């Protein structure tokens, strides 16, 4: 088992306007989230957010610290959230075991020293999608199933954005320092997420797209409302969304995505909406 990381510097709106496709993808897209028995972290200077994935196959995978953190253990000054998007798995936190089935979430607070990921079946390994942010306080570790999520249904089939929002690791469900995570499922016939688009200067986000059918793709829109750019994203890939950027996508099929957020506040409704007809 090994752990690696790369760091992405923050980019200004002026800089992004000059980027070509390859530069956009290099700055914001994360193409390889899951690697057998290996955790590959991507760190962004937007709110020092970390994104990664753990997929135990040959044996357990341990959450090791990385040089970037200058910490004795990974969660010395951080909190961690995860959603399982693979087979059944177990997460061991300082000796306490939590079973996570498909689309179940787990929050681990600051100060936990040993985190170990297990798959119940190597043939269908668990895929723990991981998000981590700096934390100033320690809150209890807690599993959250879909039945415990705060559920919101939005959109219509007529506007191609009928979707179910599952708020899993959010302050209306459990206490966190700044990390929030949830999952939005688009209904068959709908392809647009997060529409109308919005920005929020007080928070950044990371989107992770999955359940994208084979042969299909998602076009993710980013940039300032009057200066948008797009990045084509494949199944089980993620993209960084700066606070100044819109974050919305349209797929060639329906799909599911996980959103993770960090920043100034925990107000899910803190959004500056952009009229659809004013996007450029």
Automatic annotation (TrEMBL):
InterPro entries reported in the protein's UniProt record: KduI, KduI/IolB_isomerase, KduI_N, RmlC-like_jellyroll, RmlC_Cupin_sf
SUPFAM superfamilies, per the entry: RmlC-like cupins
Pfam families: KduI (PF04962)
Cofactor binding description: Binds 1 zinc ion per subunit.
GO molecular function, one term: 4-deoxy-L-threo-5-hexosulose-uronate ketol-isomerase activity
Source taxon at top rank: Bacteria
RNA-binding keyword on record: no
Coiled coil: none
Cofactor annotation: Zn(2+)
Entry EC no(s): 5.3.1.17
Keywords of the record: Isomerase, Metal-binding, Zinc
Catalyzed reaction equations: 5-dehydro-4-deoxy-D-glucuronate = 3-deoxy-D-glycero-2,5-hexodiulosonate
Pathway: Glycan metabolism; pectin degradation; 2-dehydro-3-deoxy-D-gluconate from pectin: step 4/5
Binding site residues for Zn(2+): 198, 200, 205, 247
Keyword Isomerase: yes
A GO BP annotation: pectin catabolic process
PANTHER family: 4-DEOXY-L-THREO-5-HEXOSULOSE-URONATE KETOL-ISOMERASE (PTHR38461:SF1)
Protein family per UniProt: Belongs to the KduI family.
Described purpose of this protein according to its UniProt entry: Catalyzes the isomerization of 5-dehydro-4-deoxy-D-glucuronate to 3-deoxy-D-glycero-2,5-hexodiulosonate.
NCBIfam families in the record: PRK00924.1
Name of this protein: 4-deoxy-L-threo-5-hexosulose-uronate ketol-isomerase
Upper taxonomic lineage: Bacteria, Pseudomonadati, Bacteroidota, Chitinophagia, Chitinophagales
């Amino acid at each position: 088992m090994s752990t690696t990381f790369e760091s992405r510097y923050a980019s200004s709106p002026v800089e992004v306007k000059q980027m070509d496709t390859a530069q956009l993808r290099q700055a914001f897209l994360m193409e390889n989230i899951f690697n057998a028995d290996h955790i590959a972290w991507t760190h962004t200077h937007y709110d020092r957010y970390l994104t990664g994935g753990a997929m135990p196959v040959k044996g357990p995978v341990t959450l090791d610290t990385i040089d970037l953190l200058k910490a004795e253990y990974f969660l010395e000054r951080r909190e961690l959230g995860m959603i399982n998007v693979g087979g059944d798995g177990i997460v061991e936190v300082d000796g306490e075991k939590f079973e996570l089935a498909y689309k179940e979430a787990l929050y681990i607070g600051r100060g936990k020293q040993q985190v170990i990921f297990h798959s119940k079946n190597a043939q269908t390994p668990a895929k723990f999608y991981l998000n981590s942010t700096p934390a100033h306080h320690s809150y209890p570790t807690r599993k959250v199933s879909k039945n415990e999520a705060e559920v919101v249904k939005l959109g219509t089939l007529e506007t191609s954005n009928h979707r179910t929002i599952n708020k899993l690791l959010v302050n209306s469900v459990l206490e966190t320092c700044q990390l929030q995570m949830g999952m939005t499922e688009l209904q068959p016939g709908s392809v647009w997420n997060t529409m109308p688009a919005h920005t929020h200067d007080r928070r950044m986000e990371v989107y992770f797209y999955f359940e994208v059918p084979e042969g299909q793709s998602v076009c993710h829109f980013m940039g300032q409302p009057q200066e948008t750019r797009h990045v084509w994203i494949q199944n089980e890939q993620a993209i960084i969304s700066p606070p100044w950027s819109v974050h919305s996508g349209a797929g060639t099929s329906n799909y599911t995505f996980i959103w993770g957020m960090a920043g100034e506040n925990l107000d899910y409704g803190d959004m500056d909406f952009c009229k659809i007809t004013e996007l450029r």
